[in-house]
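Technical annex, item 7. During the second reporting period the consortium partners agreed on a shared format for inverse folding records so that results from different sites could be compared directly. Each record opens with the tokenized structure and is followed by the designed sequence. A conforming record, contributed by the partner at site C, is shown below for reference.
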């Protein structure tokens, strides 16, 4: 189990998030021994970015990608927090790395 200390967790958390496609859900983090207070603290300190309620990405990774990369991270965040959903159409293609759609990625 991962110790819930700020001095050990960031590198371990980075590896965990990256192993899950760049986004981790709150419940996944809890199963790995990272409590909600740690997620809140790491977000406040700028180590993590809250992509959506209950889903987090490493801030450096978020800042390193373009709009398509952020679109993919947001889609993964939705899928992590809503497991009953599936990606289709443009989103599925972006997640598969097949294409980069034009147009408004916010809709």
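Designed sequence (site C submission):
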């Amino acid at each position: 189990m991962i110790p819930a200390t700020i001095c050990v967790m960031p590198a371990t958390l980075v590896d965990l998030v990256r192993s899950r496609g760049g986004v981790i859900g709150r419940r996944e983090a809890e199963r790995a021994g990272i409590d909600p207070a740690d997620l809140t603290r790491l977000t406040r300190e700028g180590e993590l970015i809250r992509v959506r309620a209950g889903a987090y990405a490493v801030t450096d990774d978020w800042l390193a990608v373009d709009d398509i990369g952020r679109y993919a991270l947001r889609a993964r965040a939705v899928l992590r927090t809503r497991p009953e959903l599936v990606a289709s159409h443009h989103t599925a293609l972006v997640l598969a790395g097949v294409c980069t759609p034009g147009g408004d990625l916010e809709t």
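Residues 1-8 have pLDDT under 50 and may be disordered. The CA atoms of residues 30 and 36 lie 7 Å apart. All partners now use this format for quarterly exchanges.
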